[in-house]
């Protein structure tokens, strides 16, 4: 088993198991299967869009956005003009929807993005809150009810708290992810940044504590 730093920052996948096309924490997989079975009673075919994401993959997404090669949005999902933004504004817009490489909950294998296959195919899923409030309304409401009744999962981004935008599709396995978040100290974050070669690193390094508190610790814990 790799050390804690490598697990927390997505630099290894040895703590995970294969699950279809994905890698996932074993206990998270069992909890997902139980949730999927319960949702079948509501004629919902729960499926995963995304699970584990490596440091390298997160870095590719991050750098593409920082270079204007992928679209940027504000917290309300409105498209931004990359060429009209300052470097600071680009950083803020990226962080609204994408974690800093090495600081994503998807590195842990405990967090999954889900959809209802009875509504649309995986390739058609856009991962927007409007989509989950309208097209996936039954899924969203069913998960809301189960979370309120002590489900194994919670939504870390159930509402906008000034950091990451609301993400209704994002579920986190509470038992394990809570431990990982407690272990993800600011020292881990600092080491991750020193060992990273990513765009806009200089801006993050200027105020590590701010980005640590606002984009890593700043989650909704009401349903844990």
Q: Which regions have little confidence, pLDDT < 50, spanning 5+ residues?
A: none
**The CATH topology, please?**
Muramoyl-pentapeptide Carboxypeptidase, domain 2
- What summary fits the major beta sheet? 4 strands, antiparallel
As laid out across the biggest beta sheet, the strand order is 3-4-6-5
Averaging pLDDT over every residue, what do you get?
96
Key phrases:
224 residues; alpha+beta; two-stranded antiparallel sheet
Task: Describe how the helices and strands are arranged.
Layout: H1 4-8, E1 17-19, E2 22-24, H2 26-40, E3 46-50, H3 55-66, H4 87-97, E4 111-116, H5 129-134, H6 137-148, E5 153-154, E6 170-173, H7 174-183, H8 186-194, H9 201-206, H10 208-217
Antiparallel strand pairs: 1-2, 3-4, 4-6, 5-6
């Amino acid at each position: 088993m790799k050390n804690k730093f490598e697990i927390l920052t997505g630099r290894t996948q040895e703590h995970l198991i294969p699950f279809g096309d994905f890698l996932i924490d074993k206990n998270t997989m069992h909890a997902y299967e139980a949730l999927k079975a319960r949702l079948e009673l509501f004629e919902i075919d729960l499926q995963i869009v995304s699970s584990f994401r490596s440091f390298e993959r997160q870095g590719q997404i991050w750098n593409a956005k920082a270079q204007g090669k992928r679209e940027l949005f504000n917290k309300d999902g409105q498209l931004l003009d990359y060429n009209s933004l300052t470097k600071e504004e680009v950083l803020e817009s990226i962080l609204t929807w994408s974690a800093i490489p090495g600081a994503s909950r998807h590195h842990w294998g405990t967090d999954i993005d889900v959809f209802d296959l009875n509504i649309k195919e995986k390739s058609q899923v856009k991962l927007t809150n409007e989509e989950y409030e309208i097209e996936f309304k039954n899924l969203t409401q069913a998960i809301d009810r189960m979370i309120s009744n002590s489900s194994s999962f919670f939504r870390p981004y159930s509402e906008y708290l000034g950091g990451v935008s609301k993400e209704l599709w994002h579920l986190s396995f509470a038992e394990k992810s809570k431990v990982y978040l407690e272990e993800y100290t600011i020292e881990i974050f600092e080491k991750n940044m020193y060992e990273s070669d990513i765009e806009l690193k200089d801006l993050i390094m200027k105020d590590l504590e701010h980005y640590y508190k606002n984009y890593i610790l700043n989650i909704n814990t009401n349903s844990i």
